[in-house]
Prior knowledge:
The protein is of the alpha/beta class. It contains eight helices and eleven strands. 40% of the residues are buried.
Amino acid sequence: xxxxxxxxxxxxxxxxxxxxxxxxxxxxxxxxxxxxxxxxxxxxxxxxxxxxxxxxxxxxxxxxxxxxxxxxxxxxxxxxxxxxxxxxxxxxxxxxxxxxxxxxxxxxxxxxxxxxxxxxxxxxxxxxxxxxxxxxxxxxxxxxxxxxxxxxxxxxxxxxxxxxxxxxxxxxxxxxxxxxxxxxxxxxxxxxxxxxxxxxxxxxxxxxxxxx
Length: 212
C-alpha cells in the first residue's frame, strides 16, 4: 500500500506526523515523505526539520496521498507546478486526503470544486473562496477525497481512513497501539466551545503570523 505525505517549508509538524503514526502501522504500508526536492524542510515555527526522501517529480502514482497544512500552504496556492502535480497524482489515488489548511491546496488545484470540505476553523472562509463548500465537521469524506479540520484532526482522519482500508478492528487496534484516548484538560478545542476571549486571542495570533 503506497502512501505519500507531502512536505514543504512551513508545514505544521503534527499535520504530517499524526497521520504518519497511524498510516505507517497499516499492513503492507510503504510510506514516503515527498517534497518539491529531496532534502530537509523546516516546520512552521522553524524549530523542526523533516526530511523529504523523494521528489514529487519522481512520484507518478500513489494509493494514498496526504497533504498537511501549515502557514507554508499559502505559498503553495500559487505554485503552478505543484498544483499540476496534485491534479495528476489525484487521478492515480485511491484516496486523496488533507489535514488543516492542506485542504486549501487541494482546493487551489481544483480538487474540491463544489465538494463539502473542512479545514482549520480560521481558514473556512478562504476554503469557500477557493471553490469548496466549507463545513466545521472534523472529518469530511466526499468520494475519494477526505479532508480533516485543524492539526490534531489528522489523527482522526487517518483512523477513519484506516477503517476503510483494513476494517474497523484493525483501525481500533492501531488506535489502542498509539493510545489515542484524548482527555484534554480544557474543553476549548473547538471554536464553538472556546470562550470568546480565547477565540479572539487565537485569531489575533494567526493574523500576525499570516502577515509575516
